[in-house]
Amino acid sequence: MDVDDPSPRVGADPPRIRRLEESVVNRIAAGEVIQRPSSAVKELVENSLDAGASTVSVTVKDGGLKLIQVSDDGHGIRFEDLPILCERHTTSKLSAYEDLQTIKSMGFRGEALASMTYVGHVTVTTITEGQLHGYRVSYKDGVMENEPKPCAAVKGTQVMVENLFYNMVARRKTLQNSNDDYPKIVDFISRFAVHHINVNFSCRKHGANRADVHSASTSSRLDAIRNVYGASVVRDLMEIEVSDENAGDAVFKMDGYISNANYVAKKITMILFINDRLVDCTSLKRAIEFVYSATLPQASKPFIYMSINLPPEHIDVNIHPTKKEVSLLNQERIIEIIKNTIEEKLRSSNTTRIFQTQAVNPSALTHANMQKEKGTEVKMSSGMKSQKIPVSQMVRTDPRDPSGRLHTYWHGQSSNHEKKSDLVSVRNVVRSRRNPKDACDLSSRHELLTEVDSNCHPGLLSIVKNCTYVGLADEVFALIQHNTRLYLVNVVNVSKELMYQQALCRFGNFNAIQLSEPAPLRELLLMALKDDVLMGDENDEEKLEIAEVNSEILKENAEMINEYFSIHIDKDGNLTRLPVVLDQYTPDTDRLPEFLLNMGNDVTWDDEKECFRTAAAAIGNFYALHPPILPNPSGSGIQLYKKNKDCMASGEHVDNTDEDDIDQELLAEAETAWSQREWIIQHVLFPSMRLFLKPPKSMATDGTFVQVASLEKLYKIFERC
Ligand code: ADP
Ligand code: MG
């Protein structure tokens, strides 16, 4: 060979390209169509529905790996068609490509049965109308193994698939190791039963007497849902419907049922049929989830049944081999319409008119957030240099000294997945170790929730649900209007009660707020004791001892308060996480020491119910919308931010507010705190109250709600003027 040959020298000849054996090609293709036992079941049930069946029975053994049997009473298969029934691309549902545009049946590729014969043993028994007997025949690799044998048969077709994936060792292994596919199969059949209400479905394990899904044909969709998912789901459903009115040729119709604010579940159930095909549409699902978490954060895992109808030519069903995902013409617009319809429904079902009497002031909040973020960043980077901030600096010794504010600890709401899953796993570990009943099932918690319900004042409930927020009257009271009446509402009291009730509702299921720095319990408790005016004269040693005792109490009960209330204390006695009691809301950390002292002092630890009540009350008190600790700077309050303390103390020169004299930094912080609180009251507290608060009877008489005027009377007065 020429040494100057410029072509790259390769050690060996390039690999030969060969044509794959047909059986290998088929098996690979089959593995794509039939990915797991549940996908085989889905295909078989769809065939039965395509055959016009009114009864479909499914029997499964070993999660479908040993046996899947689907029997129907449909039109059956002609004797002459049996030889090619399981060949690839043989179908009765499509003849020309153009037919695809208008196809209404679920199958059309003629691949499902064929695929099953490449990865399992398929036996078909079928009889067509008017025949005296049926035929039975087995298939392997697309062809009949023997001539069809006459046999006795009842109306319709029965397809039996045995030893699925017998020739795909790896697939069979992973399926055997992974979870049994049976729950998925039950899930599929349940969904079909909700949509095809004229068909009787049953699904059972081989040999079991009881069916796990058993639906009788009915004329009502709600009956069908009740049948399969239970009465408790149906109770919380609302009907929903929309069609595209703008389009001249009415191209789009949607109807279904969606859950309301009372439906609380761990995960979303989304049953979606597009042109009667059970499909997934990830972007629609995401959009709906988004609407729920924005409108009903507490019920953010909804139950959705939705049926969408479009002209067949507007759907491309051919983008996925199993037709699982479909693509729609004008998908974005359709999703937008559905999203808006759901949002409207949720809002109108939970609140009546909400008037925006105050302009939203997002700039104040953004400003506040930016400040917070900036602060966190600085603190975090100093933390990374592992300079622990001395406790003395975390202590707010002077309300006008911003450096000691507890924002040091602030990290904000943990929203990323890692933290959440971390939390979940922590909770699971605790659970499996202690093996208690599911936290949410504890009867004491139920009793407390029932007390909340039975103690609810119907009149106040109606006011809360239907009121219009007018504005803040002062630091504690907000003004609301209900019908023709004006009321003052004590914001601190109602928020305390709301947080208490939410702590019970979310019990065992909180998201977490992660503190940027672990906060040492003992020091925080000491801080609270020093602030406590009642403790004023006790000596420091005694306070130290009390702090020690309380911190021990909390540490002893750490596992429980973490599991039930997501208050996490690490092994060194540091507080690291707090619960999210209301979405979009974090409590004022200046009150953290007081909260811990309450937890230590006021919680009854030896009685389950009292423990939950008192702990939830302590949380309620901490998360309530108290006025910020920094004095309100508006009006004459600005005097409090003068640098010259002597002058402030003596009360002289009060009118003289010289710009230079004001501690601008502290003033800005106070302004932020107050405007943020006002924003939260209007945009978080009141909307959440409308949805969740059950005002106790005591609030009618203890000054929490005070009627200040009746407009009718006012009008009469004006008339006289
Ligand atoms: P496709 O459903 O895409 O047509 P399949 O492989 O699932 O392809 O089925 C091939 C054909 O077998 C169908 O077109 C239909 O004519 C017939 N068939 C399958 N299952 C049944 C059944 N349960 N009842 C009647 N005919 C059936
Ligand atoms: Mg089919």
UniProtKB/TrEMBL annotation:
Record-linked CDD domains: HATPase_MutL-MLH-PMS-like, MutL_Trans_MLH1
SMART domains reported in the protein's UniProt record: DNA_mis_repair
SUPFAM superfamilies: ATPase domain of HSP90 chaperone/DNA topoisomerase II/histidine kinase (SSF55874), Ribosomal protein S5 domain 2-like (SSF54211)
Region (Disordered): 376-402
Alphabetized UniProt keyword annotations: DNA damage, DNA repair, Nucleus
GO biological process, one term: mismatch repair
InterPro entries: DNA_mismatch_repair_CS (IPR014762), DNA_mismatch_S5_2-like (IPR013507), HATPase_C_sf (IPR036890), Mlh1_C (IPR032189), MutL/Mlh/PMS (IPR002099), MutL/Mlh/Pms-like (IPR038973), Ribosomal_Su5_D2-typ_SF (IPR020568), Ribsml_uS5_D2-typ_fold_subgr (IPR014721)
Positions of the DNA mismatch repair protein S5 domain: 225-347
Localisation per UniProt entry: Nucleus
GO molecular-function term, one example from the UniProt record: ATP binding
Main location: nucleus
A GO cellular component entry from the record: MutLalpha complex
Residue stretches in coiled coil: none
Protein family: Belongs to the DNA mismatch repair MutL/HexB family.
Subunit structure: Homodimer.
Protein name per the record: DNA mismatch repair protein S5 domain-containing protein
